Amino acid sequence: MKTTEETTTAGGGDVRLTGISKTYGDFTAVHPLDLTVPEGSFFALLGASGCGKTTTLRMIAGLEEPTAGTVHLGDQDVTALPPYKRPVNTVFQSYALFPHLDIYENVAFGLRRRGIKSVKKQVEEMLELVQLGEQARKKPHQLSGGQQQRVAVARALINHPKVLLLDEPLGALDLKLRRQMQLELKRIQTEVGITFVHVTHDQEEAMTMADCVAVMNAGRVEQLGTPADLYENPRTTFVANFLGTSNFIEAEVDSTSGDDIVLKAGGGKLVLHRARASAPATTGGKILAGVRPEKISLTHADDAGEIPEGRNRITGRITESSFIGVSTQFVVDSPVCSDFEVYVQNIDRDPRLAPGAEVVLHWNPAHTFGLDAAQDIDAGAETVEEEVA
């Protein structure tokens, strides 16, 4: 068997997928896809079960043969190469550690298999990287799930792959440990500096760890960007709903003035900044105005006169409230939306804000985004509910 060094040509760790697709009979798992993962980045493929993210990862790894298209790692076309000849390693959710070997030997396994005799220095350095130096002589069953996952990462990294592929690596961990491991994996990636491609259905996980996220839906990339850009500037209802929660208002374009678009909705008017509209804004045309629940302020109707001028505002009545510690989540019935969601930080709680109270919802127009009204308002939201279920 050739070593990684022998099978890798120049070109570093960029991953380039060109026209890559995968079909199984009449079913298309991945539609033709062009995607570049920059060298040294932490890249996430995010989506619900069955969206094609794992199939895409497996085509990079060589575990699935593309129906069409090519896979390049750096300058090397690896489309026809078997997995063991590709300069990649994969970490799975199941860890796949050898139960009869201690942690030291699990990590050393790849080096010994390549015929490298002197492994002590490399293994010790890798165990230090994942902060498991003192656990070297324990067996896998003596470690926690998070520690076992770090062993799996160390075992993959010791072969110095150009790209590390992670397939739902934290899915088996409980919430608290999963959050700790998110930070741990990001730290490891930053230290080693190689390309990580991470598959997950967990939105928080992708946004916590990744430099760039590709949101996948039904075998296609719905949107690609930084976590902040995807969250603040979703271009589709699917992305807006899948990454967090969004309120949508079906509105009509009333007029345009400079950088502002004036919308009519529920008998009132709202302002949308033109730069945040990803759909054409022609007078009389329809548009979906979106706003995130945490961007909205909630004021009791008795204090409506204190709301500053220039803010978008909607009247309504609180139908539900849930105290969740850091914030209180309200559901408001309004003329533009029967279940408008608002998240209010628990700093100065107004006891009048309770179910039945008449309120005014208001927010900075800059926090409104506009989408094509032809889209399904619930796209993505249903997918999230299915994942949780």
Kindly summarize this structure in a few lines.
The protein has 389 residues and is α+β, with helices and mostly antiparallel strands.
Structural description of this entry:
- Helix 3 runs parallel beside helix 5 (145-157) and helix 4 packs across helix 5.
- By secondary structure, the chain is of the alpha+beta class.
- The two termini are 45 Å apart.
- The protein has 10 helices and 20 strands.
- Residues 1-11 have low confidence and may be disordered.
- Strands 6-7-8-3-9-10 form a 6-stranded mixed β-sheet, with helices on both faces. A 5-stranded antiparallel β-sheet has the order 13-12-11-14-20, with no helix packed on it. The protein has a 5-stranded antiparallel β-sheet with strand order 15-19-16-17-18, with no helix packed on it.
- It has 2 domains: 4-232, Rossmann fold; 244-388, RNA polymerase II/Efflux pump adaptor protein, barrel-sandwich hybrid domain (OB fold (Dihydrolipoamide Acetyltransferase, E2P), Beta Barrel), CATH 2.40.50.100.
Biggest β-sheet: count, sense, barrel? 6 strands, mixed
The CATH class of the largest domain: Alpha Beta
Catalogue the unreliable spans. 1-11
* CATH topology group of the largest domain: Rossmann fold
Strand content: 25-35%
How many helices? The count is: 10
Quaternary state reads single chain
Named CATH architecture of the largest domain: 3-Layer(aba) Sandwich
H and E order: HEEEHEEEHHHEHEHEEHHEEEEEEEEEEH
Give the overall silhouette.
elongated
State the domain count: 2
Helix share of residues? 10-25%
N-to-C CA distance: 45 Å
- Mean pLDDT across residues: 90
Query: Would you count the extended β strands for me?
Result: 20
